[in-house]
């Protein structure tokens, strides 16, 4: 609000409002909007209290508005009591403060009253020791104020207690500790904003500056990049190691995403690729505390030095040109300077003490590869660069790490143990290792004829000879025949299958259907089932066949009666004559069960059945008409047996 209204208007609003004017009247009198008056008053009420002036300084007087509501100072005749309604009380100086001296420890109450006679002593000063004891107990200012007013009847205000507590809690900040490193012990690494790149087309592009500073000698290396990926980070570090002629023991880096997977001051998690890089160069990467740049102050100052001294006001066409300029600047300017902290030339210190202390470089650079997490598919393969590679079956459905370069693809588990290695192939192809296929998923055809012959040998010698002859006669087609022979061994006995193979081999039959026919014929010659054998309480089937024949004959007689019959002279009698003849013929005596089914030794007939009574459970109790629906096939069979 202060940057919109003039200070005189703001003070006028404050004074008129203190004189009990309404906001509407103030807006009408000053010619401004009423909302502006309200916002101005809210801003003034939310502003903090004026700062406590140092001891001995003159208290500032508040500005007054020359108008009717606020009487001028000269109209009061120098009466200070009249001005106190507008001018606030002088600020309370902080305990132990002096306007002309540096900060000192808080004095005692007596010393404070005598030393700061020009200022107003805090009302909480007599209770200093009590308040300090309560602060040591961890009580808040609100609780201390409550205890002072209720338990000690102290006439103090809450704001006074808060100011006094704030003074007691104030501590003198400790100086930063400068950490110096031995030669070859540490290097600090960071990225910064580089110069603008303006190409031939006139487009402006952004660049970054990668810088490494050796902590002992302040020797630096700078290189321009377009991105901050893991590959760029490794390439710049390797170029720096080659430029220095060695490797420092530790690398202090920021928590950049290209190297740190999970920032943590106590236990940071580096990406697996960065861990492998450290193992290759026998160095250690130590990320700093998140959002704490002072932990790597040397590289922070080094990046600023590059931006302000080397790149400020310069433009390049590409990063190669910027990198060449930075290399010349390092050798011609940065290495020749007298460092402000060490007071020695950077190049001299590096050549004398830093370079001999660096670790030797390995025989080759870190292999360039890519890595990523992959989930094992249902077919036991992982997808890498649009190709598929197998893993052991126990990792089905789990996540693994894949590393690949131009030649090989390596698969690791979560403990970074290598579980598979493949030669990289073109996209779309499947690379399956035989040891990664489960035993249950390998068919006999994949195992070959030798494996199948070994399985057939367990059936018997005749089956094995027939299998060998089949493979010799039919070639690759015989392997599937061997699978069929093994399936027959699960359904038939060993003796039966051996006999069939012996007969087939003697006739030169090398087809599986011949073996099946021989097995069916041998099954037909088997003895009847045990439950069909004769038993003392079970009648033979011949007795039931006789009943069927009699029923058929009766049906035939009835049909002949209904259709008429032939005379001796060859003429056919009419139906009526035949009916009269049948009525004239007396019916035969009633036949009992023993007439239809002759008695059989050992068959226990009941007395009721022996006297001709028919039971519904006996076969003869069925009416002969019922057998009119006997199947024709059964009729022909009975005629054949007769």
Structural account:
- By secondary structure, this protein is α/β, with parallel strands linked by helices.
- 41% of the residues lie in helices and 12% in strands.
- The strands form 5 sheets. The chain has a 5-stranded mixed sheet with strand order 5-4-1-6-9, sandwiched between helices. The protein has a 4-stranded antiparallel sheet with strand order 11-14-15-16, with no helix packed on it. A 3-stranded mixed sheet has the order 3-2-10.
- Strand 15 and strand 16 (418-423) form a beta hairpin.
- The longest helix has 23 residues, at 541-563.
- It is elongated, with a radius of gyration of 57 Å.
- The protein starts with 6 loop residues before the first helix and ends with a helix.
- The model is unreliable at 59-87, 95-118, 587-597 and 602-642 (pLDDT under 50).
Task: Using brief descriptors, characterize the structure shown.
642 residues; alpha/beta; five-stranded mixed β-sheet; 41% helix
List the helices and strands and how they pair.
Elements: H1 7-18, H2 23-30, H3 34-46, H4 80-83, H5 109-115, H6 128-136, H7 141-151, H8 158-169, E1 186-193, E2 196-198, E3 204-205, E4 208-214, E5 220-225, H9 230-244, E6 250-253, E7 260-262, E8 269-270, H10 272-281, E9 284-287, H11 297-311, E10 315-316, H12 319-334, H13 346-357, E11 370-375, E12 381-384, E13 387-390, E14 399-404, E15 408-412, E16 418-423, E17 430-431, H14 444-447, H15 449-457, H16 461-474, H17 477-489, H18 494-506, H19 512-524, H20 541-563, H21 575-584, H22 593-596, H23 607-610, H24 632-641
Parallel strand pairs: 1-6, 2-10, 6-9, 13-17
Antiparallel strand pairs: 1-4, 2-3, 4-5, 7-8, 11-14, 12-13, 14-15, 15-16
Helix pairs in contact: 1-3, 2-3, 7-8, 15-16, 15-17, 16-17, 16-18, 18-19
């Amino acid at each position: 609000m202060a940057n919109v209204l003039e200070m005189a208007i703001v003070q006028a609003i404050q004074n008129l409002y203190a004189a009990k004017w309404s906001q509407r009247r103030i807006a009408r009198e000053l010619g401004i909007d009423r909302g502006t008056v309200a916002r101005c008053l809210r801003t003034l009420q939310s502003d903090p209290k004026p700062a406590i002036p140092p001891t001995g300084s003159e208290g500032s007087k508040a500005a007054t508005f020359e108008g009717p509501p606020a009487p001028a100072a000269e109209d009061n005749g120098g009466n200070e009591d009249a001005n106190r309604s507008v001018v606030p009380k002088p600020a309370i100086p902080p305990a132990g403060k002096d306007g002309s001296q540096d900060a000192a420890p808080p004095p005692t109450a007596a010393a404070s009253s005598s030393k700061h006679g020009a200022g107003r002593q805090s009302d909480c000063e007599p209770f200093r020791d009590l308040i300090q004891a309560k602060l040591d107990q961890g009580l808040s200012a609100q609780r201390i104020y409550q205890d002072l007013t209720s338990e000690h009847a102290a006439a103090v205000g809450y704001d006074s207690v808060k100011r006094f507590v704030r003074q007691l809690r104030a501590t003198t900040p400790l100086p930063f500790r400068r950490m110096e490193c031995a030669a070859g012990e540490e290097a600090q690494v960071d990225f910064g904003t580089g110069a603008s790149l303006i190409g031939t087309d006139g487009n402006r592009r952004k660049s970054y500056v990668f810088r490494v500073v050796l902590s002992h000698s302040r020797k630096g290396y700078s290189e321009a990049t377009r991105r901050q990926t893991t590959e760029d980070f490794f390439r710049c570090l390797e170029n720096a190691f080659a430029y220095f002629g060695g490797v420092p023991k530790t690398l202090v880096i920021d928590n950049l995403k290209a190297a740190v997977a999970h920032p943590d001051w106590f236990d940071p998690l580096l990406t697996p690729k960065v861990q492998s890089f450290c193992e290759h160069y026998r160095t250690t990467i130590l990320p700093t505390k998140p959002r704490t740049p002072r932990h790597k102050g040397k590289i922070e100052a080094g990046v600023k030095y590059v931006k302000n001294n080397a790149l400020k006001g310069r433009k390049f066409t590409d990063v190669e040109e910027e990198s060449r300029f930075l290399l010349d600047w390092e050798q011609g300017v940065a290495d020749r300077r007298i460092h402000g902290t060490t007071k020695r030339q950077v190049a001299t210190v590096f050549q004398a003490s830093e370079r001999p202390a660096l670790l030797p470089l390995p025989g080759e650079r870190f292999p360039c590869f890519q890595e990523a997490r992959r989930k094992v598919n249902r077919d036991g393969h992982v997808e890498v660069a649009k190709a598929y590679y197998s893993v052991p079956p126990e990792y089905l459905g789990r996540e693994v790490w894949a590393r690949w370069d131009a030649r090989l693809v390596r698969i690791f588990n979560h403990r970074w143990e290598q579980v598979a290695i493949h030669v990289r192939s073109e996209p779309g192809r499947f690379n399956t290792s035989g040891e990664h296929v489960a035993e249950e998923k390998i068919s006999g055809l994949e195992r070959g004829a030798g494996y199948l012959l070994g399985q057939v040998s367990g059936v018997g010698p005749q089956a094995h000879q027939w299998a060998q002859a089949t493979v010799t006669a039919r070639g690759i087609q015989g392997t599937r025949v061997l699978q069929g022979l093994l399936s027959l061994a699960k359904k038939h006995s060993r003796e039966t299958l051996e006999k069939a193979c012996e007969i087939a081999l003697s006739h030169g039959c090398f087809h599986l259907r011949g073996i099946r026919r021989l097995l069916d014929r041998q099954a037909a010659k088997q003895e009847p089932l045990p439950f069909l054998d004769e038993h003392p309480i079970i009648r033979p089937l011949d007795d039931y066949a006789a009943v069927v024949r009699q029923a058929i004959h009766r049906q035939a007689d009835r049909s002949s009666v209904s259709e008429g019959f032939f005379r001796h002279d060859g003429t056919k009698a009419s139906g009526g004559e035949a009916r009269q003849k049948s009525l004239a013929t007396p019916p035969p005596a009633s036949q009992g069960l023993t007439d239809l089914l002759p008695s059989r030794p050992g068959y226990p007939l009941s007395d009721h059945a022996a006297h001709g009574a028919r039971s519904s459970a006996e076969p003869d109790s069925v009416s002969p008409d019922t057998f009119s629906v006997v199947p024709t096939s059964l009729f022909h069979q009975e005629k054949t047996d007769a």
